[in-house]
Specification:
single chain; mainly alpha; Rna Polymerase Sigma Factor, Chain: A; Arc Repressor Mutant, subunit A; 2 domains
Amino acid sequence: MTSEPTLLERVARGDAAAVPELLDRFGSLVWSIVRRQAGVEAAEDLVQDIFIQLWKSAARFDPAIASEATFITTIARRRVIDHRRKVGRRPENEELQDVVGVEEAGLLQLELSDEARIAQEAIANLKPDQQRVLRLALVDGLTHSEIAKVTKLPLGTVKSHARRGLERVRSRLEERARS
């Protein structure tokens, strides 16, 4: 008994009808990832890039390893990260605002720096495994599954470390905001 090929397998085989089906089924998922992580301004171009990448990468999809949604989410997330890195390297062409606006921006930057310092201190006070999991996720952009492979920890443990670590960082930031 042979199973029906997945949409990505059909795309990889060159089935022209599979591409619109892929867009219909997973378009809203990709749009939501892009809008949430990259913003509305970049969404249209980025979504198009993601679907082009999916079309090119469809042959790499293996249903024994992950679901189509997971494969698509991973590609979308990586393209968003690439986009954010690329945009981060580009100097912004902003006009200088009046002196008050510049001062307010400086104060906002100080607040953000203070929050970053507090978050960094909170992470430094976590257990070593929690620190490592959070750094791999937040700095290196690895998924929970990728972290589990790198650290050789069970996937459930990785997820627990990430959740508990983030909860501690969040509570530390909330404590600081109240004081």
